[in-house]
Amino acid sequence: MGDLILRAATDGELSAILEFWQVAAENESRPPDTPEAVEALLSRDPEALILAVDGARIVGSIIAGWDGWRCHLYRLAVAPWRRREGIGGLLIDAAEQRFRSFGGTRVDAMVLDDNPAAHRIWAAHGYRRQSDWSRWVKPLPAPASSSPIL
Ligand SMILES: CC(C)(COP(=O)(O)OP(=O)(O)OC[C@H]1O[C@@H](n2cnc3c(N)ncnc32)[C@H](O)[C@@H]1OP(=O)(O)O)[C@@H](O)C(=O)NCCC(=O)NCCS
């Protein structure tokens, strides 16, 4: 495992995180990643983006999003050259530990149907696909600059 540590991402790592996701993450069927989007995440919840870092290099990520109501996981990714070493599992464990500290009682993960490797890691960690729910989505237009926030 070398000098692997898990820690929260920092503001100075936006470019490195985006570069890491380009090579390591599942990028189908989702809004494009932007520095502004990652910055907004870290500004709202500085501990939400957990990185696995070896030396100066990002080798894994997970977003552990707690909205005060439910626990949501996104962006589980491990560098292609570091897979099957258990890093993905460590990231899931760290995210779950975070949720438990808030009193979270159930966690969900966004998983593409056509990603069997991902199905296996989630199943290995106790996650089960729900057959009676599906996700309904609607892309949002950009806010008008003078719109009041309700
Ligand atoms: C899915 C992913 C995060 C797994 O990360 P990882 O660090 O290799 O996972 P781990 O080493 O912790 O694997 C834990 C267990 O998950 C299962 N597993 C993980 N990857 C697997 C694969 N490619 N094939 C079969 N089983 C797999 C195994 O049971 C494994 O345990 P084992 O190695 O003792 O057999 C990594 O392959 C990845 O980044 N993929 C691209 C991005 C992606 O698809 N992310 C998921 C989005 S939902």
Automatic annotation (TrEMBL):
This protein's GO CC annotations: ribosome
Molecular function per GO: acyltransferase activity, transferring groups other than amino-acyl groups
InterPro entries, per the entry: Acyl_CoA_acyltransferase (IPR016181), Bact_Acetyltransf (IPR050832), GNAT_dom (IPR000182)
UniProt-listed Gene3D superfamilies: 3.40.630.30
A Pfam family recorded for this sequence: Acetyltransf_1
Keywords: Acyltransferase, Ribonucleoprotein, Ribosomal protein, Transferase
Domain N-acetyltransferase: 4-141
Protein name stated in the entry: Ribosomal protein S18 acetylase RimI-like enzyme
Gene source species: Actinoplanes italicus
